Amino acid sequence: MSLQFILTVTLNGLTLAALYFIVASGFSLIFGLMRTVNMAHGALYMVGAYIGFAVFDPIYGSAWYSYAWLIAIVAGIAAVAILGVVMQVVFLGWMQGQELRQALVTIGLSIIIADQLLANFGGSPFQFFAPDMLFGPVQVPGVGRYPVFRLFQVGLAVAVGVGLWLLLNKTRLGIMVRAGVDDRQMLAACGVNVPLVAATVFALGAALAGLGGVIGATAQPMALGVDARFLLISLVVVIVGGMGSIGGTALGAILIGLAEQWGQVFFPTYSVILTFVIMAAVLAIRPQGLMGRKIA
Amino acid sequence: MIMMTNRQWLMTGAVVALLLMLPLFLPNFWLANILGRAMVYGIVALSLTFLAHYGGFISLAQTMMAGVAGYAVAMMAPTAIPLGPFAMSYGYAIPLAVLAATLTGALVGLIAVNTREIYLLMITLALAVGFSLFAQSNTQWFRGYEGIRNIVGPEVFGMPFRTHLVFYYVALITAVLLYLLVLYVVRTPFGLALQAIRDSARRTSAIGFSVALHRIGAFALAGFIAGCGGVLITFYNIGITPSSIGLWPTVAVLIMAVIGGLGHPVGAFLGALIYAVMDTFASSIIGHDRFNTLIGLVFLTIVLVSPDGVWGIGKRLAGLGGGKEPVSDPVAKLTAGGK
């Protein structure tokens, strides 16, 4: 096993982890503030990709084609953010505190969303074309030629992570969110419009799923069934990393991404199992996740 | 929750007698493809209702436990195509398969022993989907995407298992026995301690019960029930594939249990029946192939309007509680303030 091979597999794992982080951080954010397990997160990922592509496809054929990808990202994020606000305001907000009921509602919504996507867009796979700047290979020391888009994925994930950290730790909204995690009622008593904060957080978390959808469908072809995969990835990543912790989500994503890639090297058939062995081991040793706070 | 009154025994007996006589009136299609199917999937939903109502666990791993039994019986079945390495007669294969599901249930309980509520939901979902992905990627024993075919079941009194009448009666008798088993178990010391743990784990452990052992025991029993259902489902489908135990079938069992009502074991069968009827006639209700939207809407409506399901609606309409006893709402109860 050459050094180049080791580096390549590790880099593959990290770029995969970057995508997982973008998607799972939205899931973790929503859970962190509202204790809502958004089982529709995978469906939101798919909505981002499908709406993004519906916008991308006609523009790519026109004179504006070089902007198509960026417009698709904006459209995907906006559509999913709006959908997230609707979910929170119409369905989830008024049953705050009934966590299982909320989870069941999001399961119902995800079934309807996935079926409607199938009905309106059909089931054929598609893929975004990255803009020229992010297209093609680039020379990476020690690895050789590597798709530049996958490196961009890592940069984007770092930007998302840093952005979320700044948002949560350095802004007024972040203060309100963190206060809401600890004590919602007291926050409301202080005069903060908690439902508005909740809707904002839900929009943000959903938007990350939408962003992940477009990014993911640029890196790999998009097909039906990815909603299940990304819901599962989000679950495992936040269970391993710890609920509601940005650092924990990053750690969980890196662990799962690396485990998936290295697992495929060592035991191709059972690489899926490795992910779940990690999850079970973390649960046995630290039920709250590697960086999670103790479950009350 | 309460031991059955004379009236309830009478009603149960009447329903079972009616179901036993139905083959005289109903066409074979209804017997096997709607009622029989509702019963075998209802058994898996029953295992979830048992865990949810008496243990307070909403587990999404019940389809996985059924799948373990299904795959186990398929690997050991003498008729399997391709024939497994452990082929033996159904007389041994079926009990071993149910045993495997029971052990899987205990294992799931062990993994999830420290988790509750929403965490349990997530972990069991991850385990269930993980198992189906594993079955899909393993070609040596699980035969990958293709799965294992031609699991026709044993002959009963010289008749093939897939005969409509044989399948219907075996499913009915198994379902009734397991239903009564659940009602019996929840009155045993084990079942009572389980309900005490549901209401307050700390207090129950303070008076000397092992919370962990009771939880694992409950999951093992749920595994046994789901395993019986899984074997029958495999015979019903004449085989098993990874997609039959994936995310969607997992959620389908949850939908059945919730639509029927998590407040009473009978809800599992009600929900499974509603699901089977809708699945069969969806195309004539809302047009081609949009079954998922229909069932999703029904599920969403039930969760939003009546979290205790059809059974809860019926109970309120019949006024069985006399207005004094609040209708049991396990979903709300489970989530109320994390008791």
From TrEMBL, chain A:
One of its GO terms (molecular function) is transmembrane transporter activity. It comes from the Bacteria. It is a multi-pass membrane protein. InterPro entries: ABC_transp_permease, BCAA_transport_permease. It holds the Pfam family BPD_transp_2. The keyword Phosphoprotein does not apply. Its main location: membrane. CDD domains: TM_PBP1_LivH_like. It is found in: Cell membrane. Keywords: Amino-acid transport, Cell membrane, Membrane, Transmembrane, Transmembrane helix, Transport. The keyword Chaperone does not apply. GO terms for cellular component: plasma membrane. The chain crosses the membrane at residues 6-31, 43-61, 67-92, 104-128, 148-168, 230-259, 265-285. One of its GO terms (biological process) is amino acid transport. Belongs to the binding-protein-dependent transport system permease family. LivHM subfamily. This is Branched-chain amino acid ABC transporter permease.
